[in-house]
């Protein structure tokens, strides 16, 4: 699947963290500036050598635990199209905090190839409240739009900024999320945005579902990339690619290029 989507076996996905969108507490009232931010970071990520991008409504804190509303869907669609205007890469959608139906709607409308779902299987307690996986709704909605082949489901296991209400056995959860909730790809992250994922956790998940791609979802940087990429199939990277390593800064092309070299080395030294 990774080769089909991204043309490589070690996938480097960069994150376009959007500023606050309409309806969120910090919304500036200027959508044009949001779209220009998205275009700029997308260009920088593509120039640095990523294989794909994911667009997130990162600035919309505090996040809505369920449906984000039509205003956010509309703005996300516009931002995604703005990104697609300036890069020729596969693009995905993450609708924070956990609105996979809206993410799939935007993906279908804009021709995106994947969505990231924070909670697809099981139940998590987070600052937004209790977040329930609704794979039954998500997959039926994707099928209803005729998008089973177009839009792949990338989902976190024990997503960051949350605590499981139920088992935390990663091996069991990995198998269940693939076999019962039909995820296409799994993501292993640290406890919070930018924090390193456990290499042991990555090994456990990859061992449980060796036939399924597994990505690192937080904390990967130029220094630790070789260890992660020796086990996993790639990463979704945001914080370490920003100027000074600060998530609210613009993307630094030199940081992207340096990390891209680590991915190339991993592909050449399996």
In brief:
By secondary structure, the protein is α/β, with parallel strands linked by helices.
Task: Write up this protein.
With 270 residues, the protein is an alpha/beta fold. It has a single domain, classed as Alpha-Beta Barrel (TIM Barrel). The protein has helices at residues 2-6, 31-48, 70-86, 100-110, 135-144, 170-179, 199-208, 225-229, 253-268, and strands at 11-17, 52-56, 91-94, 114-117, 123-126, 129-132, 152-157, 162-164, 185-188, 214-216, 234-237. An eight-stranded parallel sheet has the order 10-9-7-4-3-2-1-11. A three-stranded antiparallel sheet has the order 6-5-8, with no helix packed on it. Strand 1 (11-17), helix 2 and strand 2 (52-56) form a beta-alpha-beta unit. Helix 2 (31-48) packs across helix 3, helix 2 crosses helix 9 and helix 3 (70-86) packs across helix 4 (100-110). The longest helix has 18 residues, at 31-48. The chain is globular, with a radius of gyration of 17 Å. It starts with a helix and ends with a helix. The model has no long low-confidence stretch (mean pLDDT 97).
Quick tags:
single chain; 270 residues; alpha/beta; TIM Barrel; 8-stranded parallel β-sheet; 3-stranded antiparallel β-sheet
């Amino acid at each position: 699947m990774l080769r089909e989507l991204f043309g490589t076996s070690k996938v480097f996905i960069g994150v376009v963290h959007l500023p606050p969108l309409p309806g969120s507490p910090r919304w500036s009232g200027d959508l044009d500036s949001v779209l220009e931010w998205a275009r700029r970071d997308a260009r920088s990520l593509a120039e640095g050598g990523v294989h794909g991008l994911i667009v997130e409504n990162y600035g919309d804190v505090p996040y809505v635990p369920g449906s984000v509303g039509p205003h956010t869907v509309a703005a996300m669609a516009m931002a995604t199209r703005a990104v697609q205007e300036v890069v020729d890469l596969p693009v995905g959608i993450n609708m924070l905090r956990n609105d996979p139906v809206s993410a799939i709607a935007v993906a279908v409308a804009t021709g995106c190839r994947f969505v990231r779902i924070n909670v697809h299987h099981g139940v998590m307690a987070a600052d937004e409240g209790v977040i329930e996986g609704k794979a039954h709704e998500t997959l039926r909605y994707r099928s209803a739009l005729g998008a089973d082949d177009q839009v792949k489901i990338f989902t976190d296991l024990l997503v960051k900024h949350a605590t499981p209400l139920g088992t935390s056995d990663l091996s069991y959860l990995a198998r269940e999320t693939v076999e019962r909730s039909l995820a296409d790809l799994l993501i292993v992250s640290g406890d919070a945005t930018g924090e390193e994922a456990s290499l042991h956790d990555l090994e456990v998940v990859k061992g449980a579902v060796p036939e399924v791609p597994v990505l690192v979802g937080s904390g990967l940087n130029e220094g630790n990339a070789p260890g992660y990429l020796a086990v996993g199939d790639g990463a979704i990277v945001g914080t370490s690619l920003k100027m000074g390593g600060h998530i609210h800064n613009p993307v630094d092309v030199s940081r992207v290029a340096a990390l891209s070299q680590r991915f190339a080395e991993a592909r050449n030294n399996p």
